[in-house]
Amino acid sequence: MPALKSFSLAICVALFASSASAASCSDTGGRYEAWKTEMAAEARAEGVGQRGLAALMGSSYSGPTIAADRNQRSFRYTLEKFMQVRGADTIVSQGRSRKAKNANLFAAIEQRYGVPAGVLVAIHGMETGFGGFMGDTRIVSAIATLTYDCRRSAFFRPHLIGALKLVDEGAITASTVGAKHGEWGHTQFLPGNALIYGVDGNGDGKVDLNNLTDAMASTANFLRQKGWRPGAGYQEGEPNFAVIQQWNAATVYQQAIAIMAKRIDG
Q1: Which of 34, 106, 174, 181 is the most exposed place for a label (fewest CB within 10 A)?
Q2: Residue 85 lies in a domain
Q3: Helix (H), strand (E) at residue 137
Q4: Can you give the pTM of this predicted structure?
């Protein structure tokens, strides 16, 4: 019995220590400054360096990010309505032109990763209107806010660590802007994914997802690493549709990308 009691006590102490060390989330911005200090200690323990920590401590709570996170109505539309609202016909029309204009780039990417141009072009058009608008929100502040917020804290936390490590590497800075959820570049990579799947497509020695070549190559690399099978179909019910599902969790988004990509690829 004494041994069992000691073992139980050890478990309770361990659980208390674990909960005490975790940065606490909140549904309002009132504790954000205190949370940053808690989160910085955790980030340091996970290998984030001084530049990344400074970026976190210099971040600010982003009200517009929270507003955007609470208002994603387009994903609840029917497929027909979603494609209309997101401008599918325009994406296809412009996408065909962009595919032809950058034929050598897309041929090289398909040869290396096995992902056809239509899929990459459709994602590019859907995410940023072919680079027309890549965001106006500081990436670190956006991701930190979403990690601090209780709704999806566990999902965004690895992306916050990723963002801070990207700062350490010099890929982004505390001032680099992206979309409201902290997505970066032409195809809107979340920072944790950028850290893992980002590649130097143009050979200049750095990964810059605001560069079209790097962004297209990185998107293809993400899809390939998620299981893309070169030459296999990507429409709903075909092998590679499951990989498109890894890019975005919304069913109408997945369906729209597959349909537009097929039209772009002809």
Answers
A1: 34
A2: yes
A3: strand 137-138
A4: 0.88
